[in-house]
Design a protein that fits this description.
- It is built from four helices and twelve strands; from the N terminus they run βαββαββββααβββββ.
- It is α+β, with helices and mostly antiparallel strands.
- A seven-stranded mixed sheet has the order 1-2-3-7-6-5-4, with helices on both faces. The chain has a five-stranded antiparallel sheet with strand order 11-10-9-8-12, with no helix packed on it.
């Protein structure tokens, strides 16, 4: 599958944690993918629970990455969105890591750096979606019949495509898909308007007549 080494499980605690174990044991290689049909301890950002029943896609990719790259999260978000769009569904990207359809969360992304590797975790609701108090969710099955193997194949191809793409193309496509452009965000306790991203992956905010460049977790929607 797209030159990946695929390790597949019916159920494990977490594909992300298994990827960390491979790296810590010195057994990780570039373009390793850990796939699980279900997870008993799936997690998202800040170790929030990611409900992981059978019928959805749960996968973590291991890539060599000697340095942190703020641009990677945008490339991955575009890749996931393009994969979903290829089945005739119309996603948007909610900063920082949510993919939405009809303003409901359909997929999430978790990026973690460790040593000389980065782990890119992706969860996509295919045949079921959890009930969550904080936000609405949906699933691909509501919009299109999607074979899991074809979904995985297209995701791998898009991950490869957008990781290799010039960031100007990533930036342009992310901006087209973004649900958060020109929306208010909170930065350092005060509101600002999210204008977009720059060539280095920094968020561009506007507060009055001032423009601010900030990264990732420093802001909240």
């Amino acid at each position: 599958m797209a030159n990946y080494k695929l390790i597949s499980f019916d159920k494990i605690p977490s594909t992300q944690d298994y990827a960390h174990e491979l790296i810590n044991a010195g057994r990780a290689t570039d373009k390793t993918a850990i796939l699980a049909a279900a997870q008993s301890a799936g997690r998202g950002r800040y170790r929030r629970t990611w409900v992981s029943h059978h019928g959805n896609l749960y996968i973590s990719f291991i890539f060599e990455c000697p340095e942190r790259d703020a641009r990677l999260s945008y490339a991955v978000a575009v890749a996931v969105s393009e994969t979903i769009a290829s089945f005739g569904v119309h996603p948007t990207i909610k900063w920082p890591n949510d993919i939405l359809v009809d303003n409901k969360k359909i997929a999430g992304i978790l990026i973690e750096y460790t040593g000389r590797f980065v782990i890119v975790g992706i969860g996509i609701n295919v045949n079921s979606n959890p009930t969550v108090e904080r936000y609405k969710t949906t699933k691909l099955d509501n919009y299109s019949e999607i074979p899991m193997n074809e979904l995985l194949n297209r995701l791998m191809r898009n991950i490869d495509k957008w990781r290799r793409a010039d960031f100007r193309a990533v930036r342009a496509r992310w901006t087209e898909l973004a649900a958060c452009i020109n929306k208010p965000v909170k930065y350092q306790g005060e509101m600002a308007e999210l204008i977009g991203i720059n060539e280095n992956g920094a968020l561009v905010l506007r507060r009055g007549s001032r423009y601010l460049l900030v990264y990732g977790d420093e802001i909240s929607m």
